[in-house]
Write a structure and sequence with these properties.
Layout lengths: L8 E2 L4 E2 L3 E3 L16 H9 L6 E6 L17 H16 L4 E5 L17 E2 L9 E4 L2 E4 L4 E2 L2 H20 L4 E6 L4 H6 L15 H14 L4 E5 L13 H12 L6 E6 L5 H5 L7 E5 L7 H9 L5 E4 L1 H5 L3 H7 L28
Parallel strand pairs: 3-14, 4-5, 5-10, 6-9, 10-11, 11-12, 12-13, 13-14
Antiparallel strand pairs: 1-2, 7-8
The structure holds flavin mononucleotide.
C-alpha cells in the first residue's frame, strides 16, 4: 500500500493525486471518415480515470498527420465536440486527461490521406515493414520533403490543435516527439537530411513546443521523446548530445512535464534526469509491459516523478486500486488492440467485477 506510485505529485505546473499515469495508446476507434471520437471512447477513458494522469491516444493536428484508419483528429469543430464527450466523462469520474498531438510525417500512406502523399523533413522512405491501411498492409510511401512554408504550417497546426484541445476540455496536451514520427524525424539523422535552418535537428521540436506553449500556456504543455529509439528507421548518431541540447533549450520554459521513453541502449533517464529542471514522466519500453517494480524503482531513485504505464493500464482500468490492494493484474490480450468495438477495449474487468 505504501507504493510511491500512490503518493500525490505536486509539481510547479502539474498536481496529481498519484504517480501512476496512463501512457498514450492508439486504439483506432474514431469514425474513420471524420476523425470524430465515438461514445465508447468516453467510456474507455472514464474507466481509467483513477490514473494520476491520462494521456490520450495520438490525435492528428493536421490532415496530413493522420496515422491510420480510426485515428481521431483535433482539426475541426466536430472533432472538438466529439472530444468534449470524452473529457466530460473523465472529469465526471474524477480524472485528468491530456491530448497527445501526433503528426506521423512519413509513417503513412496515401490511402490514409485521401490520396495525398505523406510529408516529412526529407524525401526518404522507411525501408522495411508495412503500414496498416483500410485496404490492408502497404509498403511505406516515399514522402514529399516539406517546404519551408509547410514546416511553418505544421508547427502552427500543433498550436491550433492545442487550442482545440483546451476548448474540448482537455487539461493540457502532450506533443508526440517520440517513436519515429514527425517531430522525431526532424530530430534524427536518418529522416532529416535538410540543408536549411532545420538541419539543426532540435529546431522543429523547439518551435512546436514554443508554439503550443504560447497557445495554451507552458503549464499545460508536455513533450514526449524517446532518445535512442531506432524504430521506423530512426538513426540518432549521438542521442546524449542531441537531447541534452534539446533539454537545455526547454528548461526554464515552465512546461507541465517532459515524458521520456527509455527503450534502447542509451540510458536516457540516467543521463537526462539530472539535466531536466521540471517534472519528468518516465516510461520504459521493452518486449514485456513496464511493471510495477521497475516503475517504483524509477520513482524511489528520483529518475522520475511520475511513471506512465501503457499495456498495464490498457488491461487494468483500475490499476492504482490493484497496486494498492497488491491484487493480481489482468494480462493484455492481442485482440482488439487497434480498431473494432468494445471487445478488447471496454471488457477488461475491474477488481471484484
Ligand atoms: C496499443 C498501443 C498503442 C500505442 N500508441 C501510442 C501512441 O499513440 N503514442 C505514443 O506516444 N505511444 C504509443 N504507444 C506506446 C506506449 O505509450 C508505451 O510507450 C509503450 O507501450 C511502453 O510502455 P508499456 O510497457 O507500459 O506498455 C502505444 C502502445 C500500445 C501498446
Amino acid at each position: 500500500m505504501n507504493s510511491p506510485l500512490l503518493q500525490p505529485y505536486r509539481g510547479a505546473a502539474l498536481q496529481l493525486p498519484n504517480r501512476a499515469a496512463m501512457a498514450p495508446m492508439t486504439r483506432s476507434r474514431a469514425d474513420d471518415a471524420t476523425g470524430v471520437p465515438v461514445p465508447i471512447m468516453a467510456e474507455y477513458y472514464a474507466q481509467r480515470a483513477s490514473a494520476g494522469l491520462i494521456v490520450s491516444e495520438g490525435v492528428w493536428p493536421h490532415r496530413l498527420g493522420k496515422g491510420g484508419p480510426g485515428v481521431p483528429g483535433l482539426t475541426d469543430r466536430a472533432q472538438v465536440e466529439g472530444w468534449r464527450g470524452v473529457t466530460r466523462a473523465v472529469h465526471a469520474a474524477g480524472g485528468r486527461v491530456f491530448a497527445q498531438l501526433w503528426h506521423v510525417g512519413r509513417v503513412c500512406h496515401p490511402d490514409i490521406l485521401g490520396g495525398e502523399r505523406p510529408v516529412a523533413p526529407s524525401a526518404t522512405a522507411i525501408s522495411h515493414g508495412r503500414i496498416h491501411t483500410a485496404s490492408g498492409p502497404k509498403d511505406y510511401a516515399v514522402p514529399r520533403a516539406m517546404s519551408a512554408a509547410e514546416v511553418a504550417e505544421a508547427v502552427e497546426s500543433h498550436a491550433t490543435a492545442a487550442r482545440h484541445a483546451i476548448e474540448a476540455g482537455f487539461d493540457g496536451v502532450e506533443i508526440n516527439g517520440a517513436y519515429g514520427y514527425l517531430v522525431a524525424q526532424f530530430l534524427s539523422d536518418s529522416a532529416n537530411l535538410r540543408t536549411d535552418a532545420y538541419a539543426d535537428h532540435v529546431r522543429f521540436a523547439i518551435e512546436v513546443v514554443e508554439a503550443v506553449a504560447a497557445a495554451i500556456g507552458a503549464e499545460r504543455t508536455g513533450l514526449r521523446v524517446s532518445p535512442g529509439n531506432a524504430q521506423l528507421d530512426i538513426v540518432e548518431s549521438d542521442p546524449a548530445t542531441r537531447y541534452r541540447r534539446l533539454l537545455g533549450a526547454l528548461n526554464g520554459m515552465g512546461l507541465a512535464y517532459l515524458h521520456v521513453v527509455e527503450s534502447g541502449t542509451y540510458a536516457a533517464l540516467e543521463d537526462l534526469r539530472p539535466r531536466w529542471q521540471g517534472t519528468l514522466v518516465a516510461t520504459y519500453d521493452g518486449p514485456e509491459p513496464g511493471d510495477r517494480e521497475t516503475a517504483e524503482k524509477a520513482l524511489r531513485t528520483g529518475l522520475a516523478d511520475v511513471y506512465a504505464f501503457g499495456r498495464l493500464f490498457l488491461a487494468n482500468p483500475d490499476l492504482p486500486q490493484r497496486i494498492a490492494a497488491d491484487a493480481p493484474l489482468n494480462v493484455p490480450r492481442g485482440s482488439g488492440l487497434y480498431g473494432g468495438g468494445a471487445e478488447g477495449y471496454l471488457d477488461y474487468p475491474r477488481l471484484g467485477g
